[in-house]
Inverse folding.
C-alpha cells in the first residue's frame, strides 16, 4: 500500500493557545480513496484539516504529501503541490461571477508521482459535475444560495487541479436536495481519480461517498476502519457521535 498513499499524518498534534485540540493523530489517504473524518461538533475535524493544510500556528507531528514531508511548508506551498482545501465557511468572491470565480482558481495541470497526467479540470468539464452551476455562469457569487456557494467553492478548488481535496463539512447547513447533489458529485469526483478527505457529521452522507472512516472524539482517533465496519458499530457511534 505504501506507494499509493498520497497523504499521511504521523503523530499530529495541534493547539489553540495553550489548549490542545488534537492528540497524536495518525491517518492516511490513498490514491483514489474517499475517506471520512467523522465526529460530533468540536471533535476536532476542522482542526485536523487545518493542521494538514498547515493553517494552525501551533502544531506538532509530521504531514507527508506525495511522499514528501511538507510539515514545514506554508499552506500555499501545499496547495501548489496539489493539496486542495475547501473550508467550512464558503470562500467565494461575491462580486465576481461564477465564471470569474473559476478563473481565479485556475492552475496548470498536474501529474501523479508516477508521471502520469492527473485529471484536468476546465470550466467545461466542471459543468458536467455541477450541472446546476452552468446556468448561473454570469451570476455574481453573492447572489447564490449557501449550497450553491459551497458547490462553487469546490468547483474553484478543482480548477487548482488538486490531487487530493480536503473538504470540511460540505453538507452542513445545506438544503437536503443540494446534499444529495453533493453526494452524487463527490462520487463522480472519486470516479475521476481525485482523492477526498471529508470532514462530516452526517453518517448517511459520508457512507454514500466514503470507503473508510476515522472517528474522532475530543481530538483523538477512536475508530479507524471501513465505513461498513463503522455502520456495524452502533455502540461506538453512541459513545462518540451521540447517535
Ligand atoms: P465543528 O463541526 O464544530 O467544526 P469539529 O469537529 O470540526 O467541529 P473543531 O472545530 O476542530 O471541531 O474543534 C476542536 C476543538 O478545538 C473544540 O474544542 C473547539 O472548541 C476548539 N477550537 C476550534 N477552533 C478554535 C479556535 N479558533 N480557538 C480556540 N479553540 C478552538
Amino acid at each position: 500500500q505504501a506507494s499509493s498513499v498520497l497523504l499521511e499524518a504521523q503523530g499530529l498534534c495541534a493547539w489553540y493557545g495553550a489548549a490542545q485540540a488534537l492528540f497524536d493523530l495518525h491517518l492516511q489517504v490513498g490514491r483514489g480513496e474517499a475517506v471520512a473524518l467523522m465526529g460530533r461538533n468540536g471533535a476536532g475535524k476542522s482542526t485536523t484539516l487545518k493542521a494538514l493544510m498547515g493553517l494552525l500556528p501551533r502544531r506538532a507531528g509530521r504531514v507527508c504529501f506525495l511522499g514528501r514531508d511538507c510539515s514545514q511548508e506554508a499552506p500555499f506551498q501545499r496547495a501548489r503541490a496539489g493539496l486542495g482545501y475547501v473550508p467550512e465557511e464558503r470562500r467565494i468572491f461575491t462580486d465576481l461571477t461564477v465564471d470569474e470565480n473559476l478563473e481565479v482558481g485556475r492552475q496548470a495541470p498536474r501529474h501523479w508521482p508516477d508521471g502520469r497526467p492527473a485529471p484536468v479540470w476546465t470550466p467545461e468539464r466542471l459543468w458536467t459535475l455541477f450541472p446546476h452551476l452552468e446556468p448561473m455562469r454570469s451570476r455574481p457569487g453573492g447572489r447564490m444560495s449557501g449550497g450553491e456557494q459551497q458547490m462553487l467553492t469546490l468547483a474553484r478548488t478543482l480548477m487548482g487541479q488538486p490531487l487530493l481535496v480536503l473538504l470540511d463539512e460540505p453538507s452542513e447547513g445545506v438544503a437536503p436536495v443540494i446534499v444529495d447533489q453533493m453526494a452524487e458529485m463527490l462520487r463522480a469526483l472519486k470516479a475521476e481519480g481525485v482523492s477526498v478527505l471529508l470532514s462530516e457529521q452526517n453518517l448517511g452522507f459520508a457512507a454514500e461517498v466514503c470507503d473508510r472512516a476515522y472517528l474522532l472524539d475530543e481530538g483523538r482517533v477512536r475508530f479507524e476502519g471501513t465505513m461498513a465496519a463503522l455502520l456495524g458499530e452502533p455502540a461506538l457511534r453512541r459513545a462518540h457521535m451521540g447517535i
Observations:
- The pocket of adenosine-5'-triphosphate is lined by residues 16, 21, 39, 41-47, 169 (CB under 6 Å).
